[in-house]
Every structure is written in C-alpha cells, then in structure tokens.
Amino acid sequence: MNTFINIVVQGVLLGALYGLFAMGQSLVFGVMRLTNTAHGDFIVLLVFVLFALTNYAHLPLAVSLVLLLVIAFGAGYAVQYTILNRVSSRDPLPSLIVTFGLSIVIQNVLQQVFSADPRSIATGSFESQSLTLAGGITLGYLPLVTLVVTTALAFAMQWLFGRTPLGRAFRATSDDREIVQLMGVSYRRTYALAMGIAFVLIGVAAALYSMRTAVSPTDGPALLLYAFEAVIIGGMGSFWGTFVGGMALGIAQQVGFYFDPGWGIWLGHVVFLGVLVARPQGLLPKTA
C-alpha cells in the first residue's frame, strides 16, 4: 500500500512540473489558436538566460529570477508583435513553419554561445533536501515548491480569464478577432499581451526545471512533447485541465518507472494516445 501511495505522490510532484511546462502552451493556443512548436526551446532559452544572469552577471538568484520574468514578458511581447502576428491566421501551417524555424535557430545559437554542455542553476543544497513521512514516503522540497507554484498559477490564470477585463478581451479575441477590432480592441496587442504572459509562465517553468536538473540546448523538443501531451490530456484551453493532464502524465510515468526504468516515458505516451482515442476533447475541456 505504501508503495502505491508513494508512486502516486511522486507522480503528482512530477506532474506539477509537466503542468507548469504546459500552462504557457495552453494559454497561447486558447487565445491565438497558435501551435507553438518552439515552446520547449523557449523554456530552454530562458534557462540559459537565468544561467547567464547568475553565473556571468553574478547577480543573486532572487534578483535574477525577478529580472528573468521581466525579460520573459518583454521577449514574449516582442516575438508575438513583430513575428508571430504576421502569421496568425486560421491556417495553422504558417505558424507551425515559423515556430519550427525559431526552434532550430534557438538550439543552434545556444550551442554556439554556451556549447552543448548541460547547465543547471545552483541553489545550494535546496534541490536535494526532502521531507520523510510515515511509511518511507519522501517529499523533495523543490518538487513541493513546484506543486504549490503550479497550483497557484492555475488559480491565477483561471481567475484572469474568468473575472477580469483582460481575460474577457482574451476570450473575445479568441472567439472572433474581426468583431473585436470593430469594438476598438487591437487583436495584435491582445495577442502580444497573451504571449508576454505565456512567456512569464515559461520563465517560471524554466527556473524551477533548471534548479531540478541539468538542461542542454537540445532539450527543447522533449519538453515540447511533455507540454503538448499534458495540454491534450487535460483539454485545450482549460488551465485546470492542463494541471490535471500534467498530473496524469506524471503518475503514468512513475508507474512505468516502478516496473522498469525504460517504461516510464513510454507509458506516459501510451496514456496520452489512450486519452486521444477515447476522449479527444480531453479530461476537462475548455472552461468558462
């Protein structure tokens, strides 16, 4: 029984990280219907920005984290306003091609600047500290922080979309951007704001992920896959669905790891395919 509980607990903690990976992707698709194939590479890019701030600029970690989020928002706004707005349309192919090109550029630039060596963010010994509960169940402090942060962001994003004027503008633009323009709202600025917020979410994910493990410039496609699977499992456009999708993916992987180290990632893919076949709209489709 303790083994089963431990598998579920560790799966939830891992799933919180996957849900955080996917939250920015869920926002981008929910507002702009944009399939961002560079999402994982944006996470890696912000990891290396944080690494540069802490190791090359020698800024304290707390200051670097705040500065990272500011840089992330500005970068997201600029990328959307100057590049992606030009290819935002009902046809997904142009955005797929452009973001795929951005993915290749990011990977090669990072390898040229930082080499192919994996890098991580030093946090003292915090990443290895843990709490042991009855029955031998161990909870790492960093995974617990990730769970709390992911839960808080899911609450915040659901509140933003459901209870604020900006959220109403996002939802209206998502439904019909031409009508929104007639009402005096610029869909280009709305899209840029959405991408800026998505990049802040990506920045949070990058910071927590880089504290947990070493990251290399070519890790982006794998992170994109986890984010994409969490979004599909949970349901497009639903932040709580994304949260639940990440949990389901994390628990499935932990079950696979229990039986064989090589089965973890594979079983997560199997669960994704099973949900896609049995319930293509996801577990928790788009909410108000």
From TrEMBL:
UniProt subcellular location: Cell membrane
Annotated Gene Ontology cellular component terms: plasma membrane
Signal peptide feature range: none
Entries under InterPro entries matching the protein: ABC_transp_permease (IPR001851), BCAA_transport_permease (IPR052157)
Predominant cellular place of this UniProt entry's protein: membrane
MF terms (GO), sorted A to Z: transmembrane transporter activity
Any Pfam family the entry gives: BPD_transp_2
Keywords, alphabetical: Amino-acid transport, Cell membrane, Membrane, Transmembrane, Transmembrane helix, Transport
Domain of life: Bacteria
Transmembrane segments: 12-30, 42-59, 65-84, 96-114, 134-161, 191-211, 223-245, 257-278
Membrane disposition: Multi-pass membrane protein
One GO biological process term: amino acid transport
PANTHER family according to UniProt: AMINO ACID ABC TRANSPORTER PERMEASE PROTEIN, BRANCHED-CHAIN AMINO ACID TRANSPORT SYSTEM PERMEASE PROTEIN LIVH
Family: Belongs to the binding-protein-dependent transport system permease family. LivHM subfamily.
Protein name (record): High-affinity branched-chain amino acid transport system permease protein LivH
Gene behind the chain: livH_1
